[in-house]
Prior knowledge:
Layout: H1 2-5, E1 12-15, H2 20-29, E2 30-33, E3 48-51, E4 56-64, E5 70-79, H3 82-91, H4 101-113, H5 128-144, E6 153-159, E7 168-171, H6 175-178, H7 188-192, H8 198-203
Amino acid sequence: MVAHVTDAHVPFFTSDQFSEYKKALLHTYGQWYQPLRAGNRGRYPKPVRVPIPELVYAQVVKVRNRNGRLVKVNKKIIFGNEKKLNEKLAESPVSHEVNTSFIERDNLTQRQSNRRLTRRSNGFSKELSWFEKQLWLSLAYYHLVLPHQSLRQELLNSEPTLGSGSHRRWQPRTPAMANGITDHIWTTSELLSYRVPASFIDELPQLEYLFPEPNRSHQGS
């Protein structure tokens, strides 16, 4: 799915030590290789999946003491080499170290704002199509309705507030405001009542869904 929604270049991957990531990357960004036969007799070895030269993948290795306290963080190169890894890190606009802090922070944010992503919850979605609807709703709320303190801007002139409170010094902003998509903080009512343009409705049949369409599944009683 990642390969499908990205362009022709191969992304730079980092993760923890979950073993399935390596298998998934080989399946998506790998190629078949026929090992040479040892000697002149017998069967040829079975073809194996090997990474393409452009694939760079490194893992974060956390070292803990006997009490479980984190004492050191190392890196382990799975695909690629040290030179390619350093080149990718130098090109990164956000970090020059192999880490998973950004994705872990994003996962935590999504879990806190969407109950269907909470661990050990009875609020999970029974079908993927309904989970997709809830996911889009929570993402829209996050970008259009929820002001982010890190995105606020200091006002040139402080503004008075109601009563005798201190003057307002900051202009709250949402991610959509910071990207110029909208000029104000949306309300939940505005989000839920937004009229989707007819031109977009006409394009829906040509769009690919993240999960199966709702009419292909049954929610049950």
